[in-house]
Amino acid sequence: MKNRITELLDIEYPIISAAMTWVTSAEFVAAVSNAGGMGVLGPNAGQTEKSSSPEDTAERLRKEIKKVKELTDKPFAVNYIFPMGDNTEDPFTNAIFDILVEEKVKNVIAIGQKVIQKEVIRLKKHNINIIYRDLSPTVQKLVEAGKSGVDALIATGYEAGGHMSDYKISTLSIVPQVTALVEIPVIAAGGIIDGKGALAAFAMGAEGVYMGTRFIATKENPASEATKKAILNVKSEEFIEFKSGIGHLRTIPTEAGKKAFELINQGKPEEAYKYYGNGFKVGMLDGDLVNGTISLSEAAGGIKEIKTCAEVINEIMNTLEK
Ligand SMILES: Cc1cc2nc3c(=O)[nH]c(=O)nc-3n(C[C@H](O)[C@H](O)[C@H](O)COP(=O)(O)O)c2cc1C
């Protein structure tokens, strides 16, 4: 299959595993890339403890990038977080930028509340492909982002796992509106777990799919066995959802998740943060389903089997090429 995304990234299939904090690693990323898609190192990739500084974060990332290069010669990407809020500088962003340049990383999945033009300029100076994913996308924001010099966009619907948008716009709503208006290629994200979802995304004009939740439930993903089992058991209607520091958070109703939900509804966001702030690590990586949170797409109810990354990709490609 050839389109603008496979051409841009030099990959066989336009299937990208999402950047997900704590639940990516070199082994996982290489498994996706070796299967013909593109793996992405997320924040805390391959780690089991929090880092202490921007320099420490960057050096850990360097080690993980080196490991990916040992495991595959295929393209991969790194998550790149644009400075947020009123900041146009962020010491973490700067430290990671240096590593990307030194390690000659070719692709980033950049995220932010808006495109930061000076980041685009310095990444492009080093010929790094920029795929931009807005954290709270609207059609207007993505149209603007499409003119900023980035190479491709990810349009994320509210079905997605992780920190969701401030706006409740579904994948089925946002993707066709964006593909109708932007000239650069668009990748669809949010609730895509199989070939049928990918087919729908392509029918809406997307040229790639970006999938998180489905790839957590794979053999190679570093998430705990308890998390993978929880994905197989969860039903789409069981999730709870609350406003978090960044957008909204959907989680399986663990004790910590329920407590955070209650506290948010009582107007106590700071107290709630104590329950969900470190929740992805505690829940998803460490497997403590009482004290952690398990953030997933609502489409997780449709995942019935732990597969290898190659099996996930092959099923999608078999459906797309039928
Ligand atoms: C557990 C989890 C952690 C995530 N962490 C990040 C992150 O650190 N950076 C990021 O860009 N996106 C993050 N995301 C969002 C994904 O990149 C992606 O947009 C989302 O998973 C796509 O939706 P899906 O889960 O329905 O496939 C996370 C998603 C999940 C499920």
From TrEMBL:
Pfam families tied to this protein: NMO
Alphabetized InterPro entries for the sequence: Aldolase_TIM, NMO
UniProt-listed Gene3D superfamilies: Aldolase class I
Keywords, ordered alphabetically: Dioxygenase, Flavoprotein, FMN, Oxidoreductase
GO molecular function, a single term: nitronate monooxygenase activity
Chain's role: Nitronate monooxygenase that uses molecular oxygen to catalyze the oxidative denitrification of alkyl nitronates. Acts on propionate 3-nitronate (P3N), the presumed physiological substrate. Probably functions in the detoxification of P3N, a metabolic poison produced by plants and fungi as a defense mechanism.
Name listed for the protein in its UniProt record: Probable nitronate monooxygenase
